[in-house]
Amino acid sequence: MTLVPLTTIAIDRVESMLDSAFGSDRRSRTAYKIRAGTDFDPALSFAALDDEKLVGLIQCWPVRLTLDRGDTAPLLMVGPVAVLPNRQRDGIGRMLMNDMLAAASTQGRDRALMLIGDPEYYGRFFGFTAGRTGLWRVPGPVEKHRLLARGPDVVADAGVLGPRIAAIA
User: Fold this and answer.
1) Mean pLDDT over all residues of the chain?
2) Which of 63, 58, 88, 66 is nearest to 77 (CA)?
3) Which residues pair with 44 in a beta bridge?
4) Is the pLDDT of residue 86 over 90?
5) Do residues 113 and 123 lie in contact, with contact meaning Cβ atoms separated by under 8 Å?
6) Sign of CA dihedral 30, 32, 154, 98
7) How far apart are CA 149 and CA 111, in angstroms?
8) Domain parsing of the chain, residue ranges
9) Which of 43, 54, 112, 151 is spaced 20 to 30 A from 106 at the CA atom?
10) CA separation for the pair 78, 72 (Å, rounded)
């Protein structure tokens, strides 16, 4: 298994992988609305290759929490973490997460991370919790217990999650 920067993988291979992992209707999900109009962060997005076959990928996105009091809090949205269905018990997702978290730590960018995912998995292995996300709102449906965050700079205040675009960051 080899991890490479996601930018080295053709976009059609990435899209095919995401369709295989999440279905072709994935673009209607809340996560897509949260990060709408942004590009994934190339320094923290990776692909897992097994004999040159794309078997998994992770993307990270710049988002922000627009607080009800008027200011904003930057966050890094982790996900999707996608693995081919027939390889989902091979530890590929955990490897992708661990490598992304190590890169984020090395770059000093692990202070405010968030994702939408299984709280037992992401909590147990990576320290994500819903402890500070209870007052967050999102532009679409989400099970509140699946809205997770980690890092010392995660704000617990009420606000709306949305994209962090350079001009409005």
Assistant:
1) 94
2) 63
3) none
4) yes
5) no
6) positive
7) 10
8) 2-168
9) 54
10) 19
How many CA within 13 A on the CB side of residue 154? 25
Q: Do 64 and 164 contact (CB within 8 A), yes or no?
A: yes
Closest CA to 151 of 108, 112, 106: 112
Residue 113's nearest CA partner among 72, 41, 37, 61 is 61
Strand 159-163 relative to strand 136-137, pairing: parallel
Residues 6+ apart with CB under 8 A from 103: 43, 44
Side-chain half-sphere of 95: how many Cα atoms within 13 Å? 19
- Taking the C-alpha atoms of residue 72 and residue 64, their distance in angstroms, rounded to an integer, is 6
CA-closest candidate to residue 47, choices 76, 81, 23: 81
* Mean pLDDT, residues 35-43: 95
Task: Name the CATH topology of 2-168.
Answer: Aminopeptidase (3.40.630)
Nearest to 151 by CA among 111, 124, 98, 115: 111
